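ok trying again, last paste got cut off:
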Amino acid sequence: MSEFIQFIHKSNGVVATYPAHYADHPVFGFDLEVFDPSEYEVDKVDLEDHNIPVDQRGQLVAVPLDELLKEELIDLAEREGLDTSGTKAELIERIADNAKEI
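nice, full thing came through this time. structure:
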């Protein structure tokens, strides 16, 4: 029986669970990367947002932490109950460390 793991689609940021061997698939394996939640902010896409393609509505979408603005990182740290002071790099490290503990 195949082990299932979470992947992120590089092309659109959608997080999905597939058999581990999909990473080596010659056709769509190029678009998959093993998902490490400590490196991304994950949010569920709004089902009713008509600006989002239908196939992405209701999907988990991940954004790399280093692509977020400092204000967005502060909001994320605040939601996680973390200290919101420091540089962008310190905030990313704090958020990533917290995600690894969960």
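cool. Helices lie at 70-79, 88-101. The chain has two helices and five strands.
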